[in-house]
């Protein structure tokens, strides 16, 4: 039996301040708010049920949840939660989800928007270096959001060498 999977629907990100995070995604990536699942400080949420469903640390409270749309690709669901024993975002060397990548057509413009929105770049655009990904103009760079989540900006306008050996393809907006 084959799984019935079409692709990634959305990425969930816990942020310290949903208003600041929303503004960051609007400015950095032209994201737009689709809807609010939980309004800030709403009493219309069962915290105990959410704690059990999401396996939150006991005592964690969800302040707000919001779904954003990117111009292309999966949605971004922002969660503002507060509770005991919250940790910093994962580093790429930690287990679990460690970054997400946003396809860009123009690094200079994308980096300008990212940093103007409060993000911090920690690499310059570099040529994709894995042999299966090399090609004219294929490049990437990394930065972090104001709250510390790692984001990759990537562009690969040229065919990649792996394409010669398989009919399978990476998803491209």
Description:
- This protein is of the alpha+beta class.
- It is built from 3 helices and 9 strands.
- The strands form 2 sheets. Strands 5, 6, 7, 8 and 9 form a 5-stranded mixed beta sheet that branches. A 4-stranded mixed beta sheet has the order 1-4-3-2, sandwiched between helices.
- The relative contact order is 0.17.
- The model has no long low-confidence stretch (mean pLDDT 91).
Put the structure in a nutshell.
By secondary structure, this protein is α+β, with helices and mostly antiparallel strands.
Query: What structural class is derived from the secondary structure elements?
Result: alpha+beta
Return Rg in Å: 18 Å
Q: Categorize the overall geometry.
A: globular
Order of helices and strands: EHEHEEEHEEEE
| Residue windows where pLDDT falls under 50 for at least 5 positions | none
Give the strand content: 25-35%
Summed over residues and divided by their number, the pLDDT gives a mean of 91
Report on the biggest sheet. Answer: 5 strands, mixed
* Total number of helices: 3
Percent of residues in helices comes to 10-25%
Instruction: Give the N-to-C terminal Cα separation.
Output: 29 Å
Number of strands: 9
Topology:
Layout (H helix, E strand, L loop, with lengths): L9 E6 L2 H12 L2 E7 L8 H8 L6 E9 L5 E8 L17 E4 L3 H10 L3 E2 L4 E2 L11 E6 L5 E6 L18
Descriptive labels:
alpha+beta; globular; 3 helices; four-stranded mixed beta sheet
